[in-house]
Write a structure and sequence with these properties.
alpha/beta; 4 helices; VWA3A protein; single chain
């Protein structure tokens, strides 16, 4: 419910926001077995990816915390006012940076846009499971056929 009362504001200072979340907002971390943090974003952080990845790996590992990123691609290269951001990256570069950060935090990455889903770790996992099930089903069918032929 508290999320509905929030207003959009702030900057792309990812490290500042992550430090606050990890060092202040997770002060009761000992009461929970595992936790997840979701970043909803439309652009690349101001800090370098390797710096963020190193911090995320250390912070999330210590807290049994997973960082998940939902990247929404909007009009390429501009914000809603048409101003080019301070640190510009193409949507593909932005997605690549967040994928690296998420891997350091053993989290999941999801990339959406006006056209739909570009990439999603959850969907990739589901497709993988479906492929395994299909392969298993084919092996079972082959086994049944071979047993029928022996009888």
């Amino acid at each position: 419910r508290w999320v509905l009362s929030l207003e959009c504001k702030g900057s792309r200072n990812f490290m500042s926001a992550l430090r606050r979340a990890v060092e202040v907002d997770f002060k009761d971390k000992d009461k929970h077995k595992s936790q997840g943090l979701y970043l909803l974003t439309t652009g690349i952080p101001d800090q370098e990816t390797h710096t963020i990845s190193a911090y995320v790996a250390e912070a999330c590992g210590d807290l049994d915390l997973q960082l998940h990123v939902c990247l929404l691609s909007v009009t390429e290269g501009t914000d809603s006012t048409g101003i080019i951001p301070a640190r510009y990256a193409t949507p593909r570069e932005t997605a690549s940076a967040f994928k690296e950060i998420v891997q350091a935090a053993t989290g999941r990455f999801h990339w959406f846009g006006e056209a739909g889903i570009f990439e999603s770790d959850d969907i990739t996992s589901i497709i993988s499971e479906m492929e395994k099930a299909k392969n298993y089903s084919q092996k079972c069918a082959f086994l049944v056929e071979s047993l029928k032929q022996r009888s």
